[in-house]
Amino acid sequence: MDEREPVRGDAPNDRSRRPRLRLVLPARPVLSGFSVAVGVLLAIALAATIAGISTVLISIFLGMFLALGLDPAVRALERRGTTRAAGVAIVAVIFLGVVAVILVVLIPATVRQITAAIEAAPETIEAMEASAWYRTLEANLGVDLSAAVTEGLRSLTTLSSFLAISGGVLKAGFGVIGAVSSFVLVVVLTLYFVASLTSIKEAVANLVPQYRRARFTALLEEITQSVGGVVAGGVTLSAINALVVLVIQLAVGSSIPAVMAIVAFFITLVPMIGSLVFLLIGGVATLFVSPIAALVFVVAYLVYIQIEAYVVTPRIMGRAASVPGVLVIIGAMIGATLLGLLGALVAIPLTASILIVIRKVWIPRQNSRTSPPDDDVLTPLG
Asked: What DSSP string describes 50-112?
């Protein structure tokens, strides 16, 4: 016969091919495609919803962040014999007092200094253009810097440029209203989270199975203490940094010392990187006073950075966050790329929390595995 007889091994080979084909191709292509399309639409709708309420989510996250920073103060009062409720009340009053001082004293002074700096800008620019170092720089570059500065100021002071920069008066007004409402919301949420932090942690722990609840509660407590220590220590370091900047700016004769101190406070909230960034910003801003003033500021601030790194930071932070320096820089860069300044601020506590989970959960689990699983055991050949 011309046709070949079927070999005994052909039938099993055909049967082994069919299940593989069924794994690749869905049994109901139309229904599967429709389900995938619905899932994609739901994912897009969820992303759009999260983007629409992003401001509220950021306010909630920032309120919890600040509440964890105030919690170490409440714990310190509890260690001195104060009840939790009394400690929360004392911390809340101090927090509201600081907010009131910022609103009543600091902001008006900042506005006055900005207004005075704008009014004195022409005289400052003329004095800078008449200085010897400015003429030397202009001669070396071969560019008429005076004409460029004049043209830039003229273009910025036109009405069309102002509307283009601000995005319109109406939009700017809504932005101010939104910022004020977000500020009030963050203050209210911070006070609420401080008062109910214990109950929130208990509610989260109840979501975990009973046999894991004790370990989860201990881990959650350590994470919240670490994050609170990082936030409180970072705010304290930034406040000291801003005070030093204020003193140096007053000493060199700056016209906006309070503004520079506020800028230093927010920038230096980012550890390690913030002080170096403000060194550049403060040095350039002080050039408008005089080159000698800028040099004095840079040298004095560099000295303080060294003192802060080796004396102030170890005493304030302690063991609040034993995060390696390279992880601090990487976390701050990733956070700043995703969420700007807020992302850079929360990157360090999140990194510390992840390291706690790795040290307390992942590494002990790996150390408990002293023998390979059955699938990894190599059976002897033959």
From this structure: HHHTHHHHHHHHHHHHHHHHHHHHHHHHHHTT--HHHHHHHHHHHHHHHHHHIIIIIHHHHHH
